[in-house]
Amino acid sequence: DACGPAGSGPAAARAREQPVLEAVLPAPAEEQNGTDSAKAPKVNCEERNTTGIERFTLQILNVSQDLMEFLNPNSSDCTLVLFYTPWCRFSASLAPHFNSLPRAFPTLRFLALDASQHSSLSTRFGTVAVPNILLFQGAKPMARFNHTDRTLETLKDFIFNQTGIEAKSDVAVTEEDWEGPLPSVLTKGIDWLLLFSVLFLAGFVMYATVRTESIRWLIPGQEHEHQE
């Protein structure tokens, strides 16, 4: 259940052919150990200091902001990044649940970006459909959320299974989460590139049709002119 493609053109085609996300797999030693190692987190996240932070909320990147500027490659802190589009109904249905995550995991960071405005990032991380959620450690993508059931509980389970960090039990989706910061109402927009392409193609077909000699015989008056 996803909207796609997130981008268009040759870049998106290359992303579909060559996804660059590196999957996180447990080391052989961990697989051979007992129950304790099975419960060990796959990603050892450095939890941020929350002292002085009064409001834990999601940050949405605008078109001029680069994701890499918000990820520290020299750090082991973790960030959950959502690739979405405002016209995708699956992104809209996920929005209130993702908006509530910063309160459930205050020691982690949460970012969201419009994949249609950051096509280069979509290509880089193999994002060909939205919504797409990636867990970063520093600037490195470590895991992808692959469940079609995108709720607060499944997102909590994903983060816990990957990082071992437990969510706050008193956090639930509220009316404020439905309002933002990530929009839960679909945005209707016009794809100007697609519209221009359709108009150009229609105009070219009409021009070629009129110029074709065989079609001119079907136009009233053209047959008499040809005989003369």
From TrEMBL:
One of its GO terms (biological process) is cilium assembly. SUPFAM superfamilies: Thioredoxin-like. It holds the Pfam family Thioredoxin. The chain crosses the membrane at residues 192-210. Keywords: Membrane, Transmembrane, Transmembrane helix. PANTHER family: THIOREDOXIN DOMAIN-CONTAINING PROTEIN 15. This is TXD15 protein. It comes from Helopsaltes ochotensis (Middendorff's grasshopper-warbler). The lineage of its organism: Eukaryota, Metazoa, Chordata, Craniata, Vertebrata.
